[in-house]
Design goal:
The chain is an alpha/beta fold. Helix content is 41%, strand content 16%.
Length: 373
């Protein structure tokens, strides 16, 4: 038999190593009919809010639902009305759910592509609701899903895209279903739509994509946004500098936050600079925000001024973008884990298991020698 005490000790040593180096800063991101053809020079918070109101009419927009289909029809009509080309990625997930990514491409056709992305799906279960009886209900997702989507719809209307650039607005399905039985793939069940999007781009298209900006949970009241730790540092710096120049440094605060599993990671894994613009804690200290994954993620708990703060910063960044200053950089935590910690723990695990069996074999052999003597 294996020495249970030694096995337990080795197990907790390995667990402690992983916990110390990779998990402390990592959290899973569970996470109007305004069809106008004229362009304005700047982001309009009232138009963005109208989009969010319309989003709330279709909510909950869970994958493989009628509401999902109706919202995509609305978004498609809107993009086509302002002259954008709309494409869909349609596929069947392993649980037989029909999933859909919407890809809207700007009228400007440049060599370089900028991705502006957000997930539009809502979580099937409000499993963090304070009322246990409501935890099997879907999440309205007006902030977590709706806010980023509403901002992107308005940005498409007002963006003045620099020469040689093309902007793709991508609305991702099935980002927010992780941890629910039947939802696998993506990144541990999260980010299924963005993973599918990136994995189905050929090498030519991938080489054209210069950066990706993901918006998620950006509509709450008293919004502050920290620098997400997996995001590309040089891209963060440029966006935060734009925010400071616009007097938005009270929103885009100069603090490094947590690492979030979100729709930017599939791009980073392909070597594309990417940033996750996401609220990581609210004014009360709640992770993400107080109503995260509850039935209270509603329009009443959002603020049009938050939509404006994020929208105007991203608009100004895109219109003045300088990709030569944006370099793909591996996240230090991510790289250190796979280069140092993972190989070490693998070797240490093999050593511990070998020692467990070796010591037992030696003990048996010694007993046999003792008996023979």
């Amino acid at each position: 038999m294996i020495d249970v005490r030694k096995f337990v000790i080795c197990f907790f040593i390995i667990l402690a190593i992983h916990t110390t180096f990779i998990f402390p800063n990592t959290l899973i991101c569970y996470r109007s009919s305004i069809l106008v053809s004229n362009r304005e020079l700047s982001f309009n918070k009232d138009v963005a809010w109208s989009h969010l109101e319309n989003y709330s009419y279709y909510s909950p927009i869970v994958p493989n639902s009628t509401n999902n289909e109706l919202f995509l029809r609305y978004a498609r009509k809107y993009f086509e009305n302002i002259g954008w080309r709309v494409e869909f990625q349609n596929w069947t997930h392993s649980n037989n759910a029909k999933l859909h990514n919407l890809i809207a491409k700007s009228p400007e056709k440049g060599e370089n592509v900028i991705i502006l992305g957000a997930h539009y799906d809502n979580r099937i279960y409000a499993d963090k609701d304070p009322d246990p009886q409501k935890r099997t209900l879907p999440v309205p997702g007006i902030n977590d899903g709706g806010s980023g989507t509403a901002i992107l719809l308005e940005l498409a209307r007002v963006l003045e895209i620099p020469p040689s650039f093309e902007v793709w607005v991508v609305l991702f399905d099935a980002e927010d279903q992780g941890g629910i039985p039947g939802w696998s793939g993506g990144i541990n069940g999260w980010c299924i739509g963005s993973t599918y999007f990136v994995n189905n781009l050929n090498s030519t298209v991938l080489s054209r994509i210069k950066l990706a900006i993901i918006l998620d949970i950006v509509g709450g009241k008293n919004l502050t946004i920290q620098k997400e730790s997996y995001s590309t540092p040089s891209l963060i710096d440029q966006i935060w500098n734009v925010a400071k120049s616009l007097g938005m440094d009270n929103i885009f605060v100069d603090e490094t936050g947590i690492s979030v599993i979100d729709d930017h990671l599939p791009f980073i894994r392909k070597g594309i600079p990417a940033v996750d613009i996401i609220q990581q804690k609210d004014q009360y200290g709640f992770t993400f925000f107080r109503w995260h994954h509850t039935t209270n993620d509603t329009l009443q708990n959002c603020d049009k001024n938050s939509l404006y703060s994020v929208g105007i910063v991203i608009e100004n960044f895109i219109e003045k973008v300088n990709v030569s200053d944006i370099k793909f950089e591996e996240n230090p935590t991510w790289s250190f884990y796979f280069i140092v910690i993972f190989p070490f723990t693998l070797i240490f695990t093999v050593y511990c298991i070998t020692r467990l069996f070796f010591d037992k074999d030696m003990e048996i052999a010694n007993r046999r020698i003792s008996k023979s003597n």
